[in-house]
């Protein structure tokens, strides 16, 4: 049966089929934090994207012992050709994403329970919706932030007003850690300066390496080159095995 959604977004360059998790330098936030590259390496080794803290409107009101219940792993659905606009330096921005990350299909994180961040518009003192969000928080507080079901909305609520507006991140959130298998990874994102070191490692696994700022034609070219690289690596490995057995043959 044809998926109606796939027909609806066919040809839409403003809608991506993928979501990306980008890392950042969090040494200033956590005692065991690391650089963006170190965090990327840890994700690859653990096959896990950690949910380390809440990012919701009412995060400061959540008791410390319950913060893990509200912590989320964050992704963006910005099209692959626009990634460089997320990793550039933005004046006044506290969290600076860097060009290290993993690309997954939207379906993958949806099956993990992902939800687009819900932005509560309070621009120009339009607080009627924010008041409703605060009532929801009050109800959750009355139930100790863990009983009932209404609290489940809170991890996904985000502010939107003159002093704080990150709607441009096009964020998706998953409550809790996201475990993944190598075959779940569509591609990895790396800066140009680091892609040489990593390219062969990922080529061995058939995982494309993308750098921010590529056009769609550039991405196709990269995928083509890396596909040939993957094949050449495995052909050479087969030849070495044949030689070790004294059977040199054409592959």
Major β-sheet strand ordering: 1-4-11-12
Q: How much strand?
A: 15-25%
What series of H and E elements makes up the topology? Answer: HEHEHEHEHEEHEEEEEHEH
How far the N terminus sits from the C terminus, by CA atoms, comes to 41 Å
**Overall shape:** elongated
Largest sheet: 4 strands, mixed
Report the strand count: 12
Protein structure class: alpha+beta
Summarize the structure.
Helix content is 35%, strand content 19%. The chain has helices at residues 4-9, 36-46, 67-70, 84-87, 106-111, 128-142, 192-204, 216-244, and strands spanning 18-24, 48-49, 72-76, 97-105, 115-116, 118-121, 157-161, 164-165, 171-175, 178-179, 187-189, 209-210.
Walkthrough of the structure:
It is a single chain. This protein has 8 helices and 12 strands. The chain is elongated. The mean pLDDT is 88. β7 and β8 form a beta hairpin. It is of the alpha+beta class.
């Amino acid at each position: 049966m044809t998926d109606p959604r796939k027909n609806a977004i066919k040809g839409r360059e403003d809608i991506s089929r993928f979501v990306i998790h980008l890392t950042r330098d969090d040494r200033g936030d956590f005692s065991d934090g690391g650089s963006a590259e170190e965090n990327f390496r840890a994700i690859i080794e653990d096959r896990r994207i950690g949910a380390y803290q809440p990012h919701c409107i009412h995060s400061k009101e959540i008791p410390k012992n319950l913060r893990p219940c509200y912590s989320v792993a964050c992704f963006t659905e910005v099209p692959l050709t626009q990634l460089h606009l997320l990793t550039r330096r933005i004046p006044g921005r506290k969290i600076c994403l860097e060009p290290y990350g993993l690309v997954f299909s939207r379906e993958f994180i949806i099956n993990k329970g992902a939800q687009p961040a819900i932005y509560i518009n309070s621009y120009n003192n339009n607080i009627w919706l924010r008041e409703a969000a605060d009532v929801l928080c009050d109800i959750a507080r009355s139930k100790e932030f863990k009983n009932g079901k209404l609290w489940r909305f809170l991890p996904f609520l985000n502010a939107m007003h003159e002093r704080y507006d990150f709607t441009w991140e096009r964020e998706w959130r998953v409550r809790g850690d996201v475990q993944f298998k190598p075959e779940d990874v569509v591609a990895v994102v790396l800066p140009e300066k680091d892609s040489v070191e990593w390219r062969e490692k990922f080529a061995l696994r058939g995982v494309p390496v993308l750098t921010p700022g590529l056009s769609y034609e550039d991405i196709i070219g990269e995928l083509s080159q890396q596909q040939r690289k993957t094949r050449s690596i495995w052909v050479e490995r087969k030849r070495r095995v044949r030689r070790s057995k004294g059977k040199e043959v054409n592959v």
